[in-house]
What we know:
By secondary structure, chain A is α/β, with parallel strands linked by helices. Chain A is built from 3 helices and 9 strands; from the N terminus they run H-E-E-E-E-E-E-E-E-E-H-H. In chain B, helix 4 packs across helix 5 (107-117) and helix 5 packs across helix 6.
Amino acid sequence: MFNRRDSESQTSSNDRPVTSGSASSRKSSAGFIGPTIQIEGNVVGNEDLLVEGEIRGKVELKSNKLTIGQEGRVFADVHAKQVCVEGQMDGHLIVQEQLEILSTASIKGNITAPRISLKDGAKFNGTIDMDPQAKALKEVFGGPESRVSSMPSKAEHASGDRKKSD
Amino acid sequence: MPATHAPVTGAPAHSVRAPLLTRVIADINPEQRIFLIDLGGLQSQTLSRFEAFRCRIDVLDLDIEELKSDDHAPGSLQLRLTRRLPESLGESADLMLCWNYLNYFSPVEIDAMMQVLLQRMSKRSQIHALIESSATQMPRLPLPLSIAAGGSLSWAPQSSSNDRIPTPRHSSDGLLRCLPGFSIDQTMLLANGQREFLFFRR
């Protein structure tokens, strides 16, 4: 029951899968904000971004992936297609597809994401909204038809789970 | 950050069947939005279980030691609890998952906490809790529980060095006095000696 979601999301996604591993292994394919860099303001872009420094303000990567590395500190509202958190995050995180929270992560604030993978040990205090019809998702990314249409609905998942447990 | 027990790595997890929680989850309508308040910390298995639903979870990750700190001024526990509560955003919760946390508070403290938490609950809400029943001692801090496959509750084995404290022996009547407007839907004695409670708002 619990592995089903993972396998389906990996095979049905048309985009690059969310990958695991350390931030350094993904550094070469993404924009990089180094540990000594501090940014105050809006960060907007059309490429993946790895943050090992500090951002205060707002991050918009609506078609790309944001990775907050182990040394990264993001005190900002984040809108991104995919997000991986290994470091510190404080703000409203709105993720169109999947949020990955690693065990070293410390998150405070609100999370809106239809798919969340979590490694135990991560620290979190706040709201998690996994409703694909959540108002925040619609406001940032538009209607549900624009998102991951190849994935089965949550209702289909739930009915499948129940059939399996009957 | 909340103080927690150190799990023993590599050892198999313990588990116990929790029929009432299983029933609550089975009754969730996947087409309807559901709002949970979780007094415990974020657990991957619990998150996976609720991911199938249109679900909002407010994770409080209560720190017993911080909540019960030396400041005994009236309302200080409520103030600390309020700081852990996310904004309601105009929604009321349908279900509160107390896990084993109520064992760590006196009736007076539970009453104070519920004065804050019940304001966030809807008119038809439910509260699920595990109350120590047959054991005389329990770990000094709540074990991090999660919902495993098949509706069981699971927890990682803890190192034997963890301190143990006497259990409080909360009674059904005592708990109900802390939950004005709620009745007991059902209770079950679990295999680990805890009593599983499901309360519903009348």
